[in-house]
Design a protein that fits this description.
disordered N terminus
Length: 213
């Protein structure tokens, strides 16, 4: 019996074929997953913590600096947790794919600018990283008509290095050599992954244009 002759039950699944489970991670596409889930909630919490962190960063005193460090670390941890929850429990949404990197950039960007204003980080470092981050975010929106570019392994490494470097800069104490080494690595990976995203965006657009009738 051919697939055209195979009887189809009321559910719409051909007889003899497995019925997708609700727990199957490929059963529900991102467009059909509710945006009101715990992964997206953690992303919004991370965004809400940004002004709290900035406020604490600009208050003098070791205690407030440690408090700012704690808020930054907690906010950074939510980035890892929400990603794991989204993948494990099939909570990936198009909103999350866009909001998550924006939340990351808001957190790291505010930290970089704040540290530069305080005279603790060279402005050229902040400018290079922010130009890359803002540029790639805008690029994502430009090519969104052709598809969404998910975070790559290089992008995740870039975020990890940026968070680690910023953490050392926020932490009080004589840590300058370690701070410089971590930030140097973060800047290098930030630039390289930015170029990689540009290539991916160009390829995505080229394939989409070529596929048009």
């Amino acid at each position: 019996m051919t697939s055209a002759e195979r009887p189809v039950p009321a559910s719409g699944t051909p007889a003899g074929m497995p019925v997708p489970s609700a727990m199957d991670p490929i059963a529900t596409p991102p467009s059909q997953v509710s945006v009101y889930n715990v992964a997206n909630l953690l992303t919004m919490v991370r965004i809400a913590l940004v002004p709290v962190f900035v406020w604490m960063l600009f208050i003098n005193g070791t205690g407030w600096r440690l408090a700012a460090l704690a808020v930054f670390v907690v906010a950074s941890i939510t980035d890892r947790v929400d990603g794991q929850l989204a993948r494990k429990h099939n909570l990936v949404t198009d909103f999350g794919k866009i909001a998550d990197p924006i939340a990351d950039k808001a957190l790291t960007g505010s930290a970089l600018v704040g540290l530069s204003i305080l005279g603790e980080l060279w402005w050229w470092v902040t400018i290079v990283i922010l130009v890359r981050e803002i540029g790639i975010t805008l690029l994502r929106f430009v090519v969104i008509r052709y598809g969404i570019i998910p975070a790559s392994r290089g992008g995740k490494l870039k975020t990890l290095l940026q968070v680690a470097a910023i953490t050392f800069y926020i932490a009080p104490g004589p840590l300058d050599p370690l701070r410089w080494a971590m930030m140097g690595a973060a800047v290098a990976v930030t630039i390289l992954t930015g170029l990689d995203y540009v290539v991916k965006a160009w390829s995505l657009r080229r394939r989409a244009v070529a596929a048009k009738p």
